[in-house]
Structure formats: structure tokens, C-alpha cells
Amino acid sequence: MKIDLSGKVALVTGAAAGIGRATAIEFAKSGASVVVSDIDSAGGSETASLINSESGNATFVECDVSQSGSVEELVSQAVKTYGRLDIAHNNAGIEGARVPLIDLTEDQWDSVMAVNLKGVWMCMKYEIRHMIEQGSGAIVNTSSVAGLMGMEGSTAYGSAKHGVVGMTKIAALEYADRGVRVNAVCPGAVRSEMTDRLMDNDPEREAMYMSIQPIGRFGAADEVATAVVWLCSDAASLVTGVAFPVDGGIMAGH
User: Most CB contacts within 10 A, which of 36, 171, 238, 247?
Assistant: First the structure.
């Protein structure tokens, strides 16, 4: 199915690499103008340049999603640049420390929550305001299979990603009659800089991640991006409030 997003404006956070970069590129390939955002200005600018070099239309806006003023300015700049905001992929996230609950420090908890949960809330807060003014919009938040099931050693990360799923459902209910759809994608083990850091060149840890993925391989960022773009398109016009696993079958066994 060819998805046509011509005339639409999409915003992607955490777009300097991985799933965010792949989604920004996929939005552009589908015809959308794309606001690329990340705290990593070099990586984010590179994503925008990759899109523009392929005759797409992208602009980079630096943003720290844990800071309300930064998020408000991001959304304001998106609307100022393109005149509207139709689509948002709230993807920015960090992995945090992988330690047992009793060994997690308060600072480690706070840093993950600030980006992975508070950041998604603040992005939706400002995005939805613009979307309800224009009477339409589609948002996809990045959660994780760790937001659908318990995973040892992921107290902060898993709690935040469970929170993203709950917040997605609440927002979907609150704004369904205002023309705004809100869904979440829940990736499994996807090859990215984040998963590389989690595996830390440890063959046993890599084998563990591979073992929970029934499809027998790591996912690719563009496979998640395809799901995000579909959820934001008119092809998914009846879909809202869904936590959509893109996980190679992990959740089929839970």
C-alpha cells in the first residue's frame, strides 16, 4: 500500500538516529514535510540533510523533551515554519541503568522518567492543542514491549514505557471526538545504537535478546517506521488508543 502524506506536516522527536531517523525519512518519502528534532544537534541536522538531499522537505529544531519550554518552542517552530501540525511521532527516549530495583538510584529513576514519560506527556500537551484547533491530527508514541510486560532490570525504563501506554489510551479517549488519534508502537529488539549500548559487546547478552524474539532476528528501524507511518495515515483512520507491538512475535507468547 502506497501511503500519501502530501501536504501533511510531521514532527519526530529523537530523530538523530535509529527509529526516529528512519521514521522521519519514511514520512518524507510519503510526501510529508518533516520537523526533525533531537537534543543531538549534529545527528538531527544530519537526518534533515539526508531528507533534503533526496528532494524531501525537512527542517531541524533542537529540543530537550524533558524541558517544557524547549518542547513548547519546538511545537511553536513547527507551526511557524509550515503553518500546521498534522502528525507527531514522540519517540525520544533513553535506556537508563539496567540494575535491580533496590540498586536503582533516585537520579537514575528521575532521568529516565524525565525523558521517557514526562517528555511524551509534554510533547502531546503542546501538539494536541494545535491539532484540536485544526480539527485533526495523528500521534504515535514510542513505548516498548517493556511497556507491555515485566522485564527484570528495567524498573525505570519499563515503568516509563508502561506509563506511555496508559497515557496513550487516556489521550485517545479524551480527544477522539476532536479529530485527534493517539496510538503507541511497542518495538521489540530492534538493532540501534541504544540496543548496541545495552548489549555492550557481550555475546551472551546479545544471544539473550535474540532468544526472546520468535522471528529469530533483530528488527530493523525502518520496519518500525513503516508501522508508525501507517498508524499516522488515513489508512488507519479507525485506529486509536492502541499499543501496537512491532516485536517479531514476542508478545504472542505473553
Answer: 36
**pLDDT per residue of the chain (254 residues) written in tens, 0 to 9:** 789 999 999 999 999 999 999 999 999 999 999 999 999 999 999 999 999 999 999 999 999 999 999 999 999 999 999 999 999 999 999 999 989 999 999 999 999 999 999 999 999 999 999 999 999 999 999 999 999 999 988 999 999 999 999 999 999 999 999 999 999 999 998 976 766 666 566 677 667 667 778 988 889 999 999 999 999 999 999 999 999 999 999 999 88
Contacts of 238 (CB under 8 A, 6+ apart): none
Query: Is residue 47 situated within a structural domain?
Result: yes
Q: Work out how many domains the chain is built from and give that number.
A: 1
Q: Which of 126, 157, 175, 209 is catalytic?
A: 157
**Predicted structure pTM score:** 0.94
Q: What is the CATH number of the domain that holds 72?
A: 3.40.50.720
DSSP type of residue 65: T
Whole-number Å distance between alpha carbons of 242 and 254: 17
Q: Which structural domain range is residue 161 located in?
A: 9-190+222-244
Q: Is 126 a catalytic residue?
A: no
